[in-house]
């Protein structure tokens, strides 16, 4: 027992030394090593947690989202992140944010305990990697999106499942979204009637995978799509592509790729794209299109669906895919950019998003077995699957008509 105790003390001392100077132990640019370490540390935290700590952590977990929203709204995270590594006092932060100093002290006390900021002394606060993440575009839009739009559906989930005898939700017109928002509208219809939410929704859709590898890091589009093309070739149609980030990324990754790149979205999104185009959007065509109607662009090399099908149950996905088929030629492929979950040990970020799909859309994140069955039923077959993130099992499923 003494030897075991000494080993634990030795391990703890090494971890404490690591926390004091983490960058001297590993290269932060080595994402695979960083991810492995993070997952091990997370599991160690769970298995060493006392029963009471577990209960309190879970019972109070719903505090993190609204408290993070407050930190974003007041500008605390942004102020600390922009401070060039300098620290700030409670009075300084309260003065700059116009928050009552007594309340500010309580907020800061919570933030440091949750690792959202660092506290170096009694009245000395500074940023860390979590602070800068929450102050980023992805952090601000993601927290705000989930707080304003999704949190109500999470809260409604237990009641909804009780009322429906714990049957897996498959009807997007009757799921926790409607119960939580007291509406009969779908999320997309609700979003159109609440255009102010686009301020959070569109940036979050564009930044939710910030820092992860992209499809353009794995797939050689020049090799796969760019053979024997010219400026009139319809190369890439991003169906339901929000602001067009993927179109821009393709052109930046393959600047010599000849052919037309087309973004398709609903009218409100296309209006925003035209009013405030992304840097690098020049030369990309923006077209209003509803993917529940036949595809108007004929003969594209690739029709690209990124995070579209996970929003819908199987029958709706089949409808979307069959609408694409009408525009395809022998040279066309459909690129389905979605998570492909393993049957064992699905990553936590992916399972959280799966629960979001249940609550908001009665939809699902699918395993490879489920994807193959769906694609086959839609009249397509899978040519290959490229997986490009481990955190989410993001993958590109290359499909063609059977």
From TrEMBL:
<dbReference type="InterPro" id="IPR001077">
    <property type="entry name" value="COMT_C"/>
</dbReference>
<dbReference type="Pfam" id="PF00891">
    <property type="entry name" value="Methyltransf_2"/>
</dbReference>
<protein>
    <submittedName>
        <fullName>Putative sterigmatocystin 8-o-methyltransferase protein</fullName>
    </submittedName>
</protein>
<feature type="active site" description="Proton acceptor">
    <location>
        <position position="310"/>
    </location>
</feature>
<dbReference type="GO" id="GO:0008171">
    <property type="term" value="F:O-methyltransferase activity"/>
</dbReference>
<dbReference type="InterPro" id="IPR029063">
    <property type="entry name" value="SAM-dependent_MTases_sf"/>
</dbReference>
<dbReference type="InterPro" id="IPR036390">
    <property type="entry name" value="WH_DNA-bd_sf"/>
</dbReference>
<dbReference type="GO" id="GO:0032259">
    <property type="term" value="P:methylation"/>
</dbReference>
<keyword id="KW-0808">Transferase</keyword>
<dbReference type="InterPro" id="IPR036388">
    <property type="entry name" value="WH-like_DNA-bd_sf"/>
</dbReference>
<feature type="domain" description="O-methyltransferase C-terminal">
    <location>
        <begin position="235"/>
        <end position="381"/>
    </location>
</feature>
<keyword id="KW-0949">S-adenosyl-L-methionine</keyword>
<keyword id="KW-0489">Methyltransferase</keyword>
<dbReference type="InterPro" id="IPR016461">
    <property type="entry name" value="COMT-like"/>
</dbReference>
């Amino acid at each position: 027992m003494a030897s075991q105790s000494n080993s634990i003390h030795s391990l703890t001392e090494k971890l404490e030394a690591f926390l004091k100077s983490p960058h001297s132990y590993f290269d932060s640019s080595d994402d695979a090593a960083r991810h492995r370490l993070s997952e091990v540390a997370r599991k160690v935290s769970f298995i060493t947690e006392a029963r009471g700590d577990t209960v309190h952590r879970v019972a109070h977990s719903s505090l993190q989202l609204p408290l993070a929203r407050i930190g974003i709204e007041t500008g605390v995270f942004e102020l600390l992140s922009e401070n060039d590594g300098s620290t700030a006092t409670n009075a300084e932060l309260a003065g700059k944010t116009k928050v009552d100093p007594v309340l500010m002290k309580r907020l800061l006390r919570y933030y440091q305990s949750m690792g959202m900021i660092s506290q170096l002394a009694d009245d000395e606060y500074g940023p860390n990697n979590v602070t800068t993440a929450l102050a980023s575009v992805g952090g601000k839009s993601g927290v705000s999106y989930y707080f304003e739009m999704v949190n109500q559906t999470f809260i409604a989930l237990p009641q909804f499942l009780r009322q429906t005898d714990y049957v897996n939700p498959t009807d997007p017109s009757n799921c926790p979204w409607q119960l939580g928002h007291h509406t009969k509208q779908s999320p997309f219809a609700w979003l159109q009637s609440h255009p102010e939410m686009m301020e959070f929704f569109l940036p979050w859709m564009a930044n939710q995978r910030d820092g992860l590898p992209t499809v353009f890091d794995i797939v050689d589009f020049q090799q796969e799509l760019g053979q024997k093309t010219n400026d009139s070739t319809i190369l890439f149609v991003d169906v339901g592509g929000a602001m067009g980030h993927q179109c821009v990324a393709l052109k930046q990754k393959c600047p010599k790729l000849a052919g037309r790149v087309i973004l398709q979205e609903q009218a409100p999104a296309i209006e925003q794209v035209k009013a405030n185009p992304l840097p690098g959007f020049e030369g990309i065509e923006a077209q209003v299109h509803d993917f529940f109607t036949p595809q108007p662009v004929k003969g594209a090399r690739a029709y690209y669906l990124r995070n579209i099908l996970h929003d819908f149950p199987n029958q709706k996905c089949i409808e979307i895919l069959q609408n694409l088929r009408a525009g395809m030629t022998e040279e066309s492929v459909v690129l389905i950019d979605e998570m492909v979950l393993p049957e064992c040990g699905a990553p936590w970020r992916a399972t959280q998003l799966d629960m979001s799909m249940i609550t908001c859309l009665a939809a699902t994140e699918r395993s490879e077995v489920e994807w193959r069955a769906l694609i086959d039923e839609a009249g397509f077959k899978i040519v290959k699957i490229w997986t490009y993130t481990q955190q989410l099992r993001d993958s590109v499923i290359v499909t063609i008509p059977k």
